[in-house]
What does this fold into?
Amino acid sequence: MRHPDRFRVTMTGNGADAGGSGAPSLTVTSLRQRNTALALRQIIIAGQTTRANLARDCNLSMASITNIVADLMADGLVAETGSVASRGGRPITLLEPEPEGSYFIGADVGERGVAVELFDLRMTMIDREFRGGRAEEDPEAIARDLDDAVRNLSERNPEAMARLVGIGLALPGVVETAEGGEQTLYAQSLGWPPVRVRDLIDRDLTIFAENGAKTMARAEMWFGAARGADHAVVALLGRGVGLGVVSDGVLQGGTMSSAYEWGHTKIERHGRSCRCGGTGCVEAYIGADAILAAWADAGGRFEGSGWGAIGRLLEADEQGDAVAQAVVADLLVSLGAALGGLVNLLNPQRVIVGGWVGLRLMESLAPRIEQAIRDAALVRAGSQFELHTSAFGGDSVALGAALLPLEALISQPRAVLDLRQTGLG
It folds into this structure.
């Protein structure tokens, strides 16, 4: 496996052609590469734009944009798709990503199975496969699920697979990348041993991997509720609980990419046992299994342990069931304390809640969740955030995973395309 950071670029500042404190370290080649990445990213985010708008949005000259667009069109990544009238001059040509220019796979990998989705260059989902879903699986079973799903996608979409840049894996744990590029998954909460990410895919694909909460945050940054926010927290609530943090417009990772393991921060001393082996963890109060266990312990009667069971709890709460109301009230206190602590710690502009449990809760309880957060936060910080639901529902994690190979393409289009054409991508 090639190092996922090999093609990554960090784009900071205003994207000017030259100048600024970083200018002396930029060669002509690296400057052109940076500007090309900036332009391609903007075209994909905008969906449709013009050369003039692109020059303005990237803070580049029209001459630079004209040359960059010409190269991107020659590479089959950007297309002219029509025109709009101008004020007395020539019609203005519209630019869009060429959907068939490249393809990407994003996989939402959980302890019970996988959701694998195929995207084109407009980041439109064109096909998907699900595997598992009924019981917890070990890494070997997850690898079989992934292999089966990718094989079926390949058989149905051979032309797309010939232009595939790579596969992004959103994984249920900490993903560390070693100096040489090898990635390892540490899923302590699942009781898994350390897993080489390469071992999860039995195919010659370029693999990119990241924690699932961070891929969800990435999707929200690009196209969703965190777009345009310099500071945001993106909470993923499912069986596990995760977090992505956006600070100064950058998704944070920490020394070894394990930052913001929010689900295993403590909200109660000597509290409930958590599957990570600790006690008092956030996940032990607001994860799906914890919520349903609390309902069962209080005398609730229900079937299942997924979407339907959480829904029945919320329905019982709305219908005035005293047991369900007590469980939901306690859940809101715990969720408010967990998110309110983040508001105090990070002072975000936006708090975004997703994951299948988060979506269920926001659907029924959003005003109460918002009030619980504000009640738990300091008054000033608690007045400075907006609460949002994840923009992409159940697809946000897989979409964010597919953005990992997309970002590789954006950072060095020609290098990635060359690798793809040799069959190594």
The longest helix spans residues 322-346. The chain has 14 helices and 16 strands. Confidence is low (pLDDT under 50) at residues 1-24.
